[in-house]
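PROTEIN ENTRY
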Amino acid sequence: MSSSCLLKPSILEHRLQQLSTFCKPKVSLEQYTTPPHLASQLLTEIQRNYGDIEDCSVADLGCGSGVLTAGAALLGAAYCVGFEIDEEALKIYVENMENLGLTYCEGILCDIIQTKSWDRLASSFIILKQYLAIDVNKDNRPRF
C-alpha cells in the first residue's frame, strides 16, 4: 500500500535519532531503546505493506522514550498514545513528543499488565508482533 506522506526510512531514522533516550535503563522493567534504524525500517514496512499507520490510532505499550510512537506519528498516524509504567521514562517520552511538535501524542502512566481494562488493547498488540514474524494477509487479520 502506498502512502501519500510516507517518509523514506533514512529520513525517518534521522528524525528519530534526535530523540532523548534512557540515561540508566532499568533492567527490572526490561527497558531498552529501540534503535532508530530498526524503528524506521519496521514502521515503514508496516505502513507500506499494510497501511496500518497513516490516519490510524496507534497505541505503544511500554512506550519508553517514544521511538516507535514518534515514528508512527511522523508517518501520519492520526492519534498516538504511549502507555508506560515508569514515570521517568514517561517524562522523556513527553519531552520527545513536545520537541518534535507531535501534539496529538499522549502519554499515560499505568501498569498495563495489572489494568484489566486494557485486555483488548493487549490483544491488538499481539497482532502487531505478528508483523515481525510472518507476512499476515490483511484480509484475514482479526479486527478488534
